[in-house]
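Page 37, top half.
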Amino acid sequence: MRGRLTAGGRVELIPQGRMAGPMPWVIAIMVAMTAIALAAGLTLGNAVSNARAEIEGGVTVQILEPRADVRAAQAARAVAAIGTVPGVAGLQQVPQAQLDALIEPWLGTGITDAAGSAIPVPALIDVRLKGPATAAQLAALTRAVIPVAPSARIDAQSNWLKPVFDAMVSLQLLAIAIVALLAGALAAAVLLAARSALGANRDTIEIVHLLGGTDAQVARVFQRSIGYDATGGGTVGLALALVVILALGRRFAGLGAGLIDSGALVWSDWLLLALVPILATLLAMLTARLTVLHALRKML
């Protein structure tokens, strides 16, 4: 930077050229990583919320009888018994063809045991309750089903998916921590850049003070300079992040997994992502201003 006398007789500092130094590109990298981490956290949050809402009142009844004819009879009696339990909103016995299609990628077709018989697949009954699957509801289902289907096992869907949800929540917290760390790293980078610029322009700043310039005016120059750099770098970083997010979204959409599909970003999530470069710019400008004012008080 250097000093320049304006037409009105006011002295101002001339910042370095925009997008010429490393700071805009550092900010671009920080914004890109922050937006990607934020998108990951939002996606995980949506997946967990939607899945929990969907299976909150879900109960799975498995008929584990190995003999096919007995298994079918117990399943039919279990369906009739479940229909008499208060609080049941709906139920459906999963067709055998659908069960075979689910296990085909893992076991293949025509799988037989050592005796030459087909490996028995438990009969599944999907039960939907009017409310959450409480212990009282599970006990009522057990009392109704076990007498007519002794080989039945009753599980709340939220119970066996709890470890999955806990792992996803942990990853979501990790994404939030990464966003916070990146914000701190951005502030630290701006702080170092502002101190370096102050040291390089110490003589110019002293002349500005002799001509009547105040600390606030000097800080405003640095603040405006870093604001331009942060705006340009943030825009580039957001563009890079959107390319990565959309590419990953297309790749995961091709998996056709229900849990992944339920985590798709909604319009409010995209709005939060659009705010990332704006917030990064404000943080950079605030950090630069406070750093310069603090350094000037020690300098004079």
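Page 37, bottom half:
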Amino acid sequence: MTPSPCRTLLSKPVFLAPLAGITDLPFRNLVSRFGAGLVVSEMVASQEMVQAKPGVRERAELGFGIENTAVQLAGREAHWMAEAARKVAANGARIIDINMGCPAKKVTSASGTGASGSALMKDLDHALSLIEAVVGAVDIPVTLKTRLGWDDRLMNAPELARRAEGAGIAMITIHGRTRCQFYKGRADWAAIRAVKDAVEIPVIANGDIVDAGSARDALRLSGGDGVMIGRGAQGRPWLLSQVAAELAGQPVPKAPEAGDLVDIVTGHYDEMLRFYGEELGNRVARKHMGWYLDDAGTGPALRKRVLTSRDPGEVLRLLPEALRDGERVAA
């Protein structure tokens, strides 16, 4: 079999998962600067992208032309999936990822956006028609992200993976839960091994990977070729580079502290203001600032001031004190 075009990504086999409302362009750029094998855009609804409904482009600026970025598409209809794939490829996308793993009810429900995401695992013939449409529409690599199955009675990820590989999928990421588990319980990394045994393309393990130890366990139990980190990177955009270094047996870079941390957080905040505009950027940035302040151990009063201020200038003035406040508490 011809080697997968995604094999080169595995030189640094720690990837950033797509997270709606979180892995926007400013955050992906920051994670990429620290070092990541691959970063994946927020999920984009294929039909909305083609029809350019208001807000879609602004919400999911896709990082066209950035080498280690995949654009993730979701949908239920082959026509719109293919058209969206052509659109992003024509704009310079390097990799397209197909979402068949999102468990959100508004995505999986027929009354929502069209029974897409992990709902497609209930109808593999239809799922394959979407994969074939996307692969046939573009000349760039197409990857797939999905789950172990719909529920405990329908654990069909190995079959989906085999058929997807036959249709031209270059790499597959498996979240170690079923759709009906959502994010409850623990990810079953060992269950991913059945997918790894079913295909020759790279298989990436996802779910509950938050540090080098859990990454190592996930690789050992799944037999996977790499790991994908999502929620563990919230407030820690440097985490992926640390995990990759430890897995490779290389010196692990320290998490930023003191002035370096202030520079990173204020730089991220500034980039969000530029990307979204000051008013929206300040609101969108609050969750990221909250994670940074939590990780820094900032006191509750100062944390509240940062996260409730409507004045970006005040936020920028408060951040150095807030990020160093945690150091004083720790001391």
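Margin note: The mean pLDDT is 89.
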